[in-house]
Amino acid sequence: MLILFLVTLCGMASAQDLADRVVEHTFPNGLKLLMIARDTSPTIAPYILFKAGSVDESDDTRGIAHMLEHMLFKGTKTIGTKDYEKEAVILAEIDRIGDALDMERAKGSRADTDKITDLEAALKAQQELAKEWIVTGEYTEIYTQHGSTGFNAGTSVDYTIYTVELPSNKLELWAMLESDRLKNAVLREFYVERDAVKEERRMRVDTQPGGKLYEQFIAAAFTTHPYGMPIIGWPSDIAMLNRRKAEEFFKVHYAPNNSVMVIVGNIDIDKTIALVEKYFGDIPSQPLPSEVTTVEPQQEGERRIEVEFDAEPQLMIGYHKPTIPHFDDYVLDMISAILSDGRTSRFYKHIVEEGIAVSVNSVNGYPGARYNNLFFISGTPRSPHTTVDVEAAIYAELERLKTEPVAEKEFKRILKQIDAGFIRNLSSNAGMAQQLAFYEGIAGDWRYILGWRENMYKITPEDIMRVAKTYFTKSNRTVGTLIKKEDTTSAGDEAEGDK
Asked: CA-to-CA distance for 161 and 40, rounded, in angstroms?
């Protein structure tokens, strides 16, 4: 009890410290800047999040958000080129040939194979000419020479985020480089990179059992909402992406009023505001893109899919649920911690330690948080057990949540872990920048971090039982199973539970 009290007290102090130290500033063009001055080390973590994920794509631009993330590492009119004016002439010709080639390939069996061969040769020739003016990897080289770490980016269904950590005396260099690629980005080597994305898809999805199962599972779970689409895009989508589509997406979704900037570290607040104003203040705002209006219909029956693959079996289960800030979302965060957070969790003690599975995990909020999502469970059976055994064991644990109130001791353990995690997330500049950017960009207010912790303390055993009964039902679930091609036994009617 003393340990719990001390951890809780420390968590409360850290929460108050965070609330007092975050400084907000919004520029006339709509750019939101969050700052925390921390002098624990002479470093900074400047992050930029754009509300530009795969959920924001249209039918003819699937995969463009991820593709654009790749392209923004290619440089600008001054970085990554020896002479942009000369390079631009070749880029225009590459676009013309590439569009013609895509249009001919799209004809399928009616395509003129000789024309395709000629266009492929012409495109290759222009790409070779372009190499004369390209300086490969110059952005990365500049950051590396100035002591950066973590120079990267990531695209999700909800957003794209650009990250780096630098010595604090390099803040102006960061501002100059990042504002330049927002103002003057050149999406060079587009078709080369498009081929690289095709290969990335092959490596991460087409030849990976987990990736293949997840893609089919999420497509079955969301029949109308774009959360069911793969972030990287379907193969036919990638094949038809072009620079024009990427530039249009960039202009609309990378606007300052559709983004949030976070800078955490050894900074002077007033000087930082002035610096950001100097480099980013003249980027014009844009009409905000429309939110997704499609609502996934209520599921009215269990959905089951199987994916055949020459690999060990896997299991995925998803239940539809509301997203933040619905109170039930907080409760499901608590349920996920009870089920799979650490070696004292129920899944670990009752399924993994019993030898039924190699691993079983739950995550609340798949695949994103901007719209209603899934409570997601995955498991890998331990031989000689099967996915049928793992599925039945999972349902048994979900049924317990409906009928047995969670004991006070278990509640205290989870709350202790919550506070420990809260403190841990405050410990690094990068971790804090990530948290602030995500919640400001996706939840609409970084203070959700504080409210989340407060709401977790409001949850009762009765809330857990109610929520489990509401969402963990057979008619509300989607089940995906990876089976070996020679194994034709279906798990359909063999796993019981969730009546």
From this structure: 25
